[in-house]
């Protein structure tokens, strides 16, 4: 008997946004997650070591707080620009 955790699924969790209405909100969870990461990095003491994941793999590399924070802020700015572009496209199409 498997006593592992089982993921509960609900009808609401299975529904994904479709069409134009969902296109503008697709970046919001990523932006929120990146904001949380930025806040966590900002609260770390100076000089702390962090581990950054190699994109597309399960390999982590040691880095420092300042480098990780800089990368996080750049990623956040990029996501926010993409969100604005999507919002502008949606506004123009309506």
Automatic annotation (TrEMBL):
Pfam families in the record: ASNSD1-SEP (PF21975)
SUPFAM superfamilies given in the database record: Prefoldin
Entry protein name: Uncharacterized protein
Source organism phylogeny: Eukaryota, Metazoa, Spiralia, Gnathifera, Rotifera
Organism of origin: Rotaria magnacalcarata
Stretches the record annotates as Disordered: 1-34
Coiled coil: 62-89
This protein's record includes keyword Coiled coil: yes
Keywords: Coiled coil
UniProt-listed InterPro entries: ASNSD1-SEP (IPR054148), Prefoldin (IPR009053)
